[in-house]
Structure formats: structure tokens, C-alpha cells
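mind reviewing both lines:
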Amino acid sequence: MPLNRVIISRRITSILDELSRLTNALYAMNMTDIQRYPENYEALSVDAALRAEQIACRLRHLIYTTTGTRKEEYLSSASTMLNIGIQCKDGIVEISLPSLLPKRKQHLSGEFLLDPLHNALAQYAKSCPLPHFHHCVVCFSHIYSRDLPDRRVRDYDNLELKQLLDIVASFLMTDDSGLLCDAYNTTEIGENDATRISVMDSGQFSIWLQAREKALQAISDF
């Protein structure tokens, strides 16, 4: 049943209020001395990022309920806009995401990235059959921008990995239980914040790890 105009207006007004709060947070970030008050800057930046993601998710739901745009159609465009990448080479599936994963307590961030990822995997599988792993290793590479302070690097157990792993497992794995799936986390310094997920058969992991270490060493030589 379509929403009436009063409800639509109320939801748009609520989003506008969030946009105002986001603008205020960005102004505060711009005025904060990151060297002298790093904790304040971090709190402001996290608040701004979460608000932006919440705004995007609320706009998505408004589109789904008030227009003829199908959810799958919109999410296909969203995954392209977010630059979610998927490739399968030599039996290894690599997924690239345009951001770091949220902390566990920041559940508002989940939907923003997870829905487009699910759609991207579904679309990829239609044209390129994905491998199905029985015993596998999933490797999370957390890539931090070299232009920002090293103190941003977080403990792995504070990151929201489960929801992401559930989606990946639904397309690629028999099961993501500890009996059939091992998880490996690593931190890298790169051009921009990003997350790369590599899924492979357990027997390929040692070869993958050696190749990765050689690649990182080659980069550090420059």
C-alpha cells in the first residue's frame, strides 16, 4: 500500500534534520585540531560517517516504498557507485570494498554496505559461476590510508565481521563454522581506506600468503 503524502513528508523532514546534524558534525570536524585533540576528532568523524550512512539507508527505503524503482535495480547501481569489486582468478575469489569495516557496536553501518555487496555477488554469479568451497580460508585485509594517523588501526576483535562473512558464505561456502572455515586478518597501509576479502581452498592459503608477503615487500621498496 503506497504511503500517503503526510507520511512521506514526515520522513523527508526527518532526513533533512539528520542532514543538518551531519553538516554540523562536518563543520566541527573542520574546526577541530586533529593533532591536539585526536579523540575529539575521531568521535566527530565517526558520528558524521554513521549519520551519512543512516541517511543513505533511509533514503533507500523511501525510494523502495514510494517509487517504482525495484530494490535489486537500485542496489545494482549502489554497488557500482560504491566501487565494490569482485574477481575470481586461479580459484581464489577476491572482493574489494571501498571502506574499512565498522566497529561491532556501530550496527547502523551494516546495511549501507551489506545490501549492495549481496546484490553485487548475486549479479556476478549470474554471468561468472563462483566456486563453492568446502574447507576454506577467508582472509580479511584491512587497508588504512597512509595519509592518516596510525592510531586509527583497530583490534580485529572489535570489527564487525560476522554479517559480512554470512553474506560471503551464502555464495561461496558450504558453511562458515570453524570446522570448515578458517579466518585470517591482516593490516596493510595503502592509498585509501579499503577492505579486501580473499576466499580460497585451505590448500591454497600458504601459497597465497607467500605471494602477498612478496607483494607487500615489493611495495615497501619504493
